[in-house]
Design a protein that fits this description.
2 domains, three-stranded antiparallel beta sheet
């Protein structure tokens, strides 16, 4: 009888220790993710609410009849004057309804995946604007966050590059 009790006690201790290690591991993993998200610059909440609407230092003056954000270069930031660039006024489509740039589905919205973010910037003219119409060489004021994504490989290629090394 005491052998059975000892075996059950050992199994119980192993179960308790396993559960404890699992929750410690889970806590440390979540803490690491929160730290990475908190240190991301610009933050996803900024990108959702301000950063995606207009280039840096351009002023969002409202929404046009098509629902696009109207951006005005009211500070006269020197931009590339290549055709077809408008260096004083541009407009950009908003994030699709029900979607968010942020993680963890804040406010019940669906978070865009890395691939969806990349495609959204490429398909809606933001990457073209950054690369063709953005600030003149030597001028501060790139479109922070947008420039970083537009000038990196697509998310699916990033993972392939990482595993091919």
């Amino acid at each position: 009888m005491s052998v059975v009790i000892n075996i059950l006690a050992i199994i119980g201790i192993i179960f308790i220790l396993s559960t404890l290690f699992y929750y410690i591991y889970k806590y440390m993993k979540e803490r690491t993710v929160r730290t990475i998200i908190a240190n991301k610059n610009p933050p996803d909440s900024y990108m959702q609410n301000t950063g995606l609407q207009c280039p840096d230092y351009w002023v969002n003056t409202g929404i046009d009849a098509n629902g696009n954000h109207i951006c005005i270069n009211s500070f006269n930031i020197p931009s590339n004057n290549t055709s077809p660039c408008n260096t004083t006024r541009v407009s950009f489509k908003p994030i699709p309804t029900g979607k968010t740039w942020e993680y963890n589905n804040p406010n019940g919205l669906t978070s865009l995946s890395d691939t969806e973010k990349y495609n959204f910037l490429k398909d809606n003219g933001r990457c073209d604007w950054v690369n063709k119409c953005g600030p003149k060489s030597g001028t501060q004021g790139i479109w922070t966050g947008v420039n970083e994504i537009c000038n990196s490989p697509p998310p699916d290629q990033k993972s392939q590059t990482r595993f091919n090394k």
